[in-house]
Amino acid sequence: MSFMRTLSRSSFGLPKITKSNPFPRQVLPVTYAGGVRYYAARPKTLKERIEELIPEKQEEIKLVKKEHGTKSMGNITVDMIYGGMRGIKGLVWEGSVLDPEEGIEFRNLRISDCREKLPRSKGGEEPLPEGLFWLLVTGEIPTEEQVQALSADWAARSTIPSFVEELIDRCPNTLHPMSQFSLAVTALQHDSNFAKAYQAGVEKKSYWQYVYEDSMDLISKLPNIVGRIYRNVYKDGKVPSIEPNKDYSYNLAKVLGFEDNKDFVELLRLYLTIHSDHEGGNVSAHTTRLVSSALSDPYLSFSAALNGLAGPLHGLANQEVVRWIFNLRDSVGESPSDEVVREYVWNTLKSGKVVPGYGHAVLRKTDPRYMAQRDFALKHLPNDPLFKLVSQLYTIVPEVLLEHGKTKNPWPNVDAHSGVLLQYYGLTEQNFYTVLFGVSRALGVLAQLIWDRAL
Ligand SMILES: CC(C)(COP(=O)(O)OP(=O)(O)OC[C@H]1O[C@@H](n2cnc3c(N)ncnc32)[C@H](O)[C@@H]1OP(=O)(O)O)[C@@H](O)C(=O)NCCC(=O)NCCS
């Protein structure tokens, strides 16, 4: 199931959104600058903006169905079916499109565009994930003011119920942080606006409003959840408080104990931005949607996604990568020759294992998310020995995988790099890495969930 493809609007022959014409059907009064849309008048809140966009989107879908409803989207082969729906175009996903050659585009913006165009913190260089969330939901680049309002809203909603705190505190430290994460998110369901509204019999057309509130609450509470897990498992169990006037990544860094390192906070901003969304066919995204299609609320849906993300062929690969690199270092030293590294990679393959961090179901070139992290490393930690080893692998592993001849994509994916950056800044607990991936993934899948209920 993880290989099914999702489609964007242009697949149905709608006017293509391009950089010079980003919103061809747009009728609202806006100004354009640099190929993206900015508001002309009073900044709207995110919820107000969604409300405005819904009728437009509904019309668009009606039109697509009327004009293209019977159009075939391609052949389905037996191989595709036995391959777990591999390559079958099966669903629409609003927020992102994954091009096999170009990598991910968030609402028509590549990662390099996001790094350039999304609002940053004062003096910062990386995009704020709040801006990315706004982009994923609306297709628009928010103003700095709108992003600050979102940071403040998320901080204001961040408190978690005491019974959820106790639940996390009662978990044995030996329970994997991802299992604790999933457990805590399920428990938050106690306060689901959507579940309560559904029980009260609200009408279908207002479902999205409750899903929106749940999604905003859930995203807001994640720092307190994961901070508590981290503090319990690896530290003294005391969780610092969220600061109401700081951005999401700063607060996440703070609960983990890294807020004084501004480069680490910047890394988190980049990390949360690039891991957020990767089309709809991957395990975590598809699971969120699948579970929510039964009208399970966002908490139930996202906790299911976390269980998928915890698999070693999905999010857990970042943990596996660091382990594999440490084993490599332990067995051949910190500065091995290319020949020795090549032999180590071959040994992994000969023992029937995959080389973690390499390969992808859809991508057919180096993951731009890998390149964004490499760019960050070249700027902030060019002489780190572990980064140098990662760079050496970047040249050797693809050669070996090509020679091995099985892997369709021999290039590195996002997970080949993330752990090494976290190690550098002192977040050394590998079992925690996928938890950070999960925080980021919430942004992408919940943005989609709001639209699923609205449409
Ligand atoms: C991501 C991944 C699951 C995609 O799987 P996929 O779509 O089946 O990939 P392919 O079509 O290229 O697989 C063809 C063969 O190459 C193998 N292969 C793929 N990536 C490989 C890797 N990194 N190392 C060794 N073998 C690999 C597959 O296991 C498969 O072997 P099989 O025919 O014996 O089953 C796979 O590349 C992988 O396991 N990578 C390592 C884990 C990882 O980094 N996951 C994070 C993904 S973002």
TrEMBL record:
Q: Which domain of life is it from?
A: Eukaryota
**Name by which UniProt lists this protein:** 9215_t:CDS:1
- Provide the species name: Acaulospora colombiana
